Amino acid sequence: MSAQDLPPSLALQCDGATAVLTLSRPHKRNAIDDDTLLGLERFFTAPPAGVRAVVLTGSGEHFSAGLDLAELTGTDIVAGIAHSRMWHRVMAAIESGPVPVISVLRGAVIGGGLELACATHIRVAESSAFYALPEGQRGIFVGGGGSVRLPRLIGTARMVDLMLTGRVYDAEEGHRAGLTQYLVPGDKGLATALDLAGRIAGAAPLTTFAVLQALPRIAEAGPAAGLLLEALMSAIAQGSDEAKTRMQAFLGGRGPKAGGAA
Fold first, then answer.
1. In terms of Cα–Cα distance, which of 202, 187, 184, 183 is closest to 53?
2. Cα 100 from Cα 54, distance rounded (Å)
């Protein structure tokens, strides 16, 4: 995957093991059309070789104002179902893909933009971010996976409120509700995300695999199945050559300690 393989609405920069992918439709507040959506799918299905963390951000003052509603004009019910399922497929490529994804949220994070953010693994909000689900006020319903992912973060009752009343959360309210893991002042979102990406890129590949692929399934499983899967994944991870090397370094006083101390 290279920048040449992406539509003009997506900009790509790679720096070592970190890639920065930017939604680049600032004149539309980075609203997501089908070309952008399919570009996201191509990128996250096959990230550039050597990339071990991705930062997803938006050009200009906004992350994304959601689905470009022009894509829904004139569609019938069958086409609407297919369009929603396309969104589901792309969000799954992000959430269950091979690399951790950190989103940088500023300005509008609404509708499909919020659904996109929920498919990323770590969300960093700047103080300008605001969140809404205006679908309820427009006579439509979420279609990009938001009804599954958003209640896991903030609870069903909060999502009901957002959709029925048109309520808007500011950055602080969204953070308290559980939408984001980090809330930073001003324009520090990208710098914070890049720092996090650098740390993530240094993780053992098998640990990253376990966190992205096994952990969500453990969380959704019943206790007995979850504990068995945890035991299996734990044994596989600690049995790898890299884990043994890292453990020996730690025991020998050469590895990093919790809190970042050497």
1. 202
2. 6
Query: Would you call 220 a catalytic residue per the annotation?
Result: no
pTM: 0.92
Annotation marks residue 115 as catalytic? yes
**What's the pLDDT score for residue 258?**
59
Residue-level pLDDT at 261 = 43
Q: Three-state SS for 210?
A: helix
Kindly name the residue from 95, 135, 173, 242 that is annotated as catalytic: 135
Structure tokens at 217: 């399934």
- Single out the catalytic residue among 41, 61, 95, 115: 115
What is the pLDDT, as a whole number, of residue 262?
39
Do residues 10 and 190 touch, judged by C-beta distance below 8 A? no
Question: Which domains are assigned to the chain?
Answer: 3-201 (3.90.226.10), 205-251 (1.10.12.10)
Chain-centroid distance, C-alpha 39: 15
Q: CA–CA separation, 250 vs 119, rounded Å?
A: 34
Q: Which secondary-structure segment (H or E) carries 192? A: helix 189-201
Residues in the chain: 262
Please state whether beta strands 18-23 and 108-110 pair in parallel, antiparallel, or not at all (unpaired): unpaired
> Residue 169 and residue 110: Cα distance in Å, rounded?
10
Is residue 197 within 8 Å of 102, Cβ to Cβ?
yes
DSSP 8-class letter at 98: S
The tens digit of pLDDT for each residue in 164-181 reads 999 999 999 999 999 999
> What is the rounded average pLDDT for all residues in the chain?
92
* CA dist., res. 104 & res. 219, Å (int): 25
